[in-house]
Amino acid sequence: MIDIVDQNSPKIAAFNARPAFPEEAEKAAAQVLAAIKQDGDKAVLGAVERFEGFKAKKAADLRLNLSLKGIKIDPKIAKAVKEAHKRVKAFSLASLRKSWEMSTPKGGKAGEFFSPMDRVGVYIPGGTAPLASTSIMTVTLAKAAGVKEIVACTPAGKTGEVNPVLVYALLLAGATEIYRVGGIQAIGMMAFGTETCKKVQKIAGPGNAFVTAAKRQVYGYVAIDQVAGPSEIAVLTDGSVDVRWIAADLLSQAEHGSGWEKSLCVCTSKSLAEKIRAEVLRQTETLSRKALVQRVIDRDGILIVVAKSVKAGLEIVNDFAPEHFEIMTKDALKVMKGVRSAGAVFAGPWTPESAGDFVAGPSHVLPTGGAANMFSGLTPDDFRRRHSFVQFTEEDLKETKAAIEAFAEVEGLDGHGRAATIRFE
Questions:
Q1: Mean pLDDT for the chain?
Q2: CA-to-CA distance for 234 and 262, rounded, in angstroms?
Q3: Angle, nearest 10°, between helix axes 290-298 and 243-254?
C-alpha cells in the first residue's frame, strides 16, 4: 500500500523509525566470528559451505587468481566500467585532504599530514545482484588514498563463480586480492586474519543484516566505515519535474531486494501526490524485479507526504535523514543550502540518484537508517590516517611552560610537568 498523508501525520514518524538490528543476525554473527577467531581457515571453509553452498577443497581455493586480460566481458560493459572508474578516480583524487601547517607564536610549526593505511578490506555484495559498481565505489577510493594492499571479498554461491563484470571492476579499480567469500565469514576472515588471508586494518562496503552485524562486532579489532542497512531515497518535488521521472526515481531504490527499502516522496499538493502514486504503481508493473518492489509496497515502504511548502517539505526530509536525497524543484541548488541530514544530494531534474550509484563521482557507500544525521558517506580519506604534528622552539616551550606545569599540578601528573621544567634547569 502507498499512503498519501499530510505533513502532520503520525505515519511519518512511524515511517522514519527503521527496524533495529535483527537479533537473529547478531547471534549468527557472534557464533561464526568466534569460530573464525579460533579456527581460522577451517572455520571460513565451513561457513562458506554452510551458508553459500560452495565446497572448496582448501582455503587457497577461495582466492581468485585472475588478471584483467583473462576476463572476457561485453565491450559495451567494459566501456561503462572504465567510464565510472575514470570519474570516481578523478573525484577521489580531488577530494583528498591536503597536509597543512601554521606558525606557532614563537616561530615553531604545527599542522596535520596524512598517510595511507597499509592493508584494507572491502566487502562487495553479490546476493540478489552482483554490485560491480560497488567495486568501483570502494576500491577506487582506497587506491586513490595510496593503500598498497586492498582485499576484496564477495559471495560466489554454489558454483564458486564470481560475476566476471564484478571481478573486472575490482581489478581495474586496484584490488590486490580477491576472495570468493561472502557474509559473516568474509568479515571475520578480514578482521581476524587466517593462514590464507592476513588481517586488514579497516573494512568498508555495504552488506545485508548479517554482514552489518558482523561489522559491528569486529569494530575494535579493525576499523569500519559505518553500519549500513537497506537502501533508501527521499525525493522533494514542487511539481516542476515530470511525475514519471519522480516515480522512476522512487522505484530505483525499492528494487534492491531486501524488502525493507524505503522511498519517501514529499510534494506540495494532494493532486500531485495522487499522480505520483498512480505512476509508481503503473511503473512497478513494468519492472523485471516487480516482485521485490511489491514487497516494499506491501510493507508500507513507500510514503508520499503533502507539505505546505518546499521549505516545510525540506524539514520533513531532514528528519528522515535519507541515504539519497533528490531535490526535484525549481532553484534546486538554493534549496540544497537547507539540507542538514542526507548521505548524498542530487540536485535538479537531470540528476537521478542512479547517476550517483554508477558514474557521477562520489562513492555510493552511504549512511542509512537515519544515520545520515551523524555519519557521512565513504571518502578516500577514510582509508588514510591523519597525523597532527608540533615543532616548538625553545621560546614556544618557555611561553607555555607555566601552563603545562599548572595542568600537571591539577591532574596530579608531576612527571608531565617535569618534562617541561627540566629543559630549563
A1: 95
A2: 8
A3: 90
pLDDT of res. 293: 94
Q: How many CB atoms lie within 10 A of CB 207?
A: 26
pLDDT at position 21 is 74
The answer, yes or no, to whether residue 69 has pLDDT greater than 80, is yes
Do 54 and 157 meet the contact criterion of CB atoms below 8 Å apart?
yes
C-alpha cell at 324: 539519497
Residue 231 and residue 133 in contact, taking contact as beta carbons nearer than 8 Å? no
Q: What pLDDT score does 20 carry?
A: 67
81 phi/psi in degrees, rounded to 5: -65, -45
Spatial distance between the Cα atoms of 350 and 245, rounded to a whole number of angstroms? 10
**pLDDT of amino acid 47:** 96
Q: Tell me what pLDDT residue 128 has.
A: 59
Q: Which residue of the set 324, 326, 353, 364 is catalytic?
A: 324
The DSSP annotation for 246-298 comes to HHHHHHHHHTSSSS--EEEEEES-HHHHHHHHHHHHHHHTT-TTHHHHHHHHH
* Residue 170 exposed, middle or buried by CB count within 10 Å (0-12, 13-18, 19+): buried
Where does residue 311 rank: exposed (0-12), middle (13-18), buried (19+ CB within 10 A)? exposed
Q: Is the pLDDT of residue 129 over 80?
A: no
Distance between CA atoms of 37 and 194, rounded to whole angstroms?
8
Is residue 205 within 8 A of residue 134, CB to CB? The reply is yes
Answer yes or no: is pLDDT of 112 > 70: yes
- One-letter identity of residue 311: K
**Burial annotation 270-284 (CB, 10 A radius, 16+ → b, else e):** eebbebbbebbeebb
Backbone phi, psi, residue 8, to 5°: -100, 5
Looking at 177, 255, 279, 323, which residue is catalytic? 323
Rounded to 10 deg, the angle between the 183-192 and 23-39 helix axes is 40
Q: Is the pTM higher than 0.85?
A: yes
State pLDDT tens for residues 143-171: 999 999 999 999 988 888 899 999 999 99
Residue 116 has φ and ψ, to the nearest 5°, of -70, 150
Which among 78, 72, 46 is positioned nearest to 59, based on CA atoms?
46
- The three cell numbers of residue 127 are 546476493
Active site annotation includes 323: yes
* DSSP state string for 111-160: EEEEEE-SEEEEE---SSS--HHHHHHHHHHHHHHT-SEEEEE---TTTT
Nearest CA-CA partner of 208 in 283, 141, 259: 259
